[in-house]
Amino acid sequence: MSDNAKGLSLGVTWFEIALWKRILTAMVVGAILGSIWGPGAESIGWIGDLFIRLIRMIVVPLVFVTIVSGVVSMGDPSKLGSLGAKTLILYMLTTLIAITIGLVLAAIIQPGVGVDLTGAPASALQETIPLSERLISIVPENPFAALAEGNILAIIFFAILIGVSLLSIGEPGKPVADFMDASSEVVLRITHWIMEIAPFGVLALIARVTGAQGFESLLSAVVLAVTVLLACAAHLIIMHGVIIMHFMLKLSPVMFFRGARDAMLVAFSTSSSAATLPVSMSVAEENLGVRPLVASTVLPLGATINMDGTALYVGIVSVFAAQSFGIDLTLMDYLIMAGTTTLVSVGTAAVPSASLFLMAAVMATIGMTPDQIAVTVGFIFIIDRPLDMLRTVVNIAGDLSVSTAVANWEGEFDREIFDRPLKY
Fold first, then answer.
1. Residues whose CB is less than 8 angstroms from the CB of residue 376 and which lie 6 or more positions away in sequence, other chains included
2. Does 317 have pLDDT greater than 90?
3. Rounded CA gap, 45 and 63, in Å?
4. Separation of alpha carbons 401 and 19, rounded Å
5. Can you spell out the DSSP letters for 113-142?
6. Residue 223: inside a domain, yes or no?
7. Whole-angstrom Cα distance, residue 52 to residue 278?
8. Residue 291: inside a domain, yes or no?
């Protein structure tokens, strides 16, 4: 066999391997490479940065054109109100359940007992965006500026207006509607191309994180890390696997997690809900049977306001800090933390380590001083990235679970696609 034939055969074999297997293999290789190479792994970090830039490049056009196309395809604008109400209620409910699971496990395991934070470096902490400011920003002063800045909530609002207006004018708007429909197919095709290089980007990202921090970074707070891991697993299994999939939708939890695995793996490596959005939309439509109307509206909204993993993490860290500083927490303190975290998580950006900016608001409600908060964040910052990777997986799984539920309730769900065997 000639060298060209061998190369072609190898290429075909590579693309025949299921994407999740390629990504998972890349993660393992990246972790080993980073452990051996150490800080030198930073030299290949640009490959991971390039991958993230590629998927962020496609986020804005993907969200805009798919929402406009989806709204036009529904035929009745009133359906949008029902879809939006169900989405918001379910997102807030899952976030509240997540923070409750985190607080309960933190109270039982007590990760902060016996931990001395006096030697931890203080770290400056930015304030979270006020909820009122977040709501006002939904209406863009300049839609083109919102598109350029990647303001997802403003883009969603503007795209919905465009879609509804196209529906209202009828036949004169058909050329624009057809253009948007074709554009959505174009950006989805580009998304598939980008995902084919995902394993290389994931390898570089994992190698850089492991090389810079190493696995030993978790040992300084092993009980806290274990608490976060258990809480993430519990929320995924109980909330999304048992309650939503099994009881509410009568669907197989195994089939759901199998269909969502590509997006969950990318979420783990990028630590960003926003960066994972194109992958989430792809697996929702192709693996989970969520039709474009729901996928194009529910998922971008979820990437912005649904922070199950973040809420869970902030609750655990707040209890950890209170235990470390000897602050006794009452039942009312736990209730206030749960409510505060659920609300302020809406103002958290969908970027790596964004939850560090949420902690100040929550810790202040239990009487912690600014100095204590700064010291806690300084301690957490050292181990935040590995834990951030875990909670981003929870965020993405939550987005996909809610979109599957809303699609079911709105008659926009394809059961055959959900149950279809995937390539292993």
1. 117, 120, 317, 320, 321, 324, 359, 363, 368
2. no
3. 27
4. 21
5. TT---TTSPP---PPPPPHHHHHHTTS-SS
6. yes
7. 11
8. yes
Residue 3 has pLDDT above 60, yes or no: no
Q: Residue 67 is inside which H or E element, if any?
A: helix 45-74
Query: How far apart, in whole angstroms, are the C-alpha atoms of residue 250 and residue 270?
Result: 32
pLDDT of residue 253: 94
Name residue 312's amino acid.
Answer: L
- Looking at the DSSP bridge assignments, the partners of residue 290 are 413
Q: What is the pLDDT of residue 2?
A: 54
Helix/strand/coil (H/E/C) assignment for every residue in 353-395: CHHHHCHHHHHHCCCCCHHHHHHHHHHHHHHHHHHHHHHHHHH
CB atoms within 10 A of CB 99: 30
Q: Is residue 332 part of a domain?
A: yes
Taking CA atoms, 1 is separated from 4, 15, 192, 308, 313, in Å, by: 8, 20, 31, 53, 55
Q: For residue 143, what are the domain limits?
A: 38-419
CB 48 within 8 A of CB 205: yes
Other C-beta atoms closer than 10 Å to the C-beta of 334 total 20
Which residue did the predictor score with more confidence, 229 or 385?
Answer: 229
The C-alpha atoms of residue 392 and residue 91 are separated, in whole angstroms, by: 15
Give the CATH number, domain containing residue 72.
1.10.3860.10
Beta bridge partners of 29: none
For the segment 379-401, the average pLDDT, to the nearest whole number, is 82
The answer to the question of residue 358 being in a domain is: yes
Long-range own/partner contacts, residues 165-169 (CB < 8 A, 24 or more apart): 166/68, 166/71, 166/72, 167/71, 167/72, 167/75, 167/76, 167/77, 168/77
**Is the pLDDT score of 46 beyond 80?**
yes
User: What is the distance between the alpha carbons of residues 128 and 360, in angstroms, rounded to a whole number?
Assistant: 8
CA distances from 383 to 179, 207, 224, 272, 324 (A): 47, 16, 10, 17, 17
Give the C-alpha distances (Å, rounded to integers) separating 411 from 65, 184, 294, 314, 405: 22, 21, 10, 35, 10
Alpha carbon distance 375, 373 (integer Å): 5
Q: How many domains does the chain have?
A: 1
Instruction: Quote the tokens at residue 17.
Output: 């391997």
User: Per-residue pLDDT averaged across 191-208, rounded?
Assistant: 83
Helix (H/G/I), strand (E/B), else coil: 2 = coil
Mean pLDDT, all residues of the chain: 80
Q: What pLDDT, on the 0 to 100 scale, is given for residue 396?
A: 93
Query: pTM of the full predicted structure?
Result: 0.77
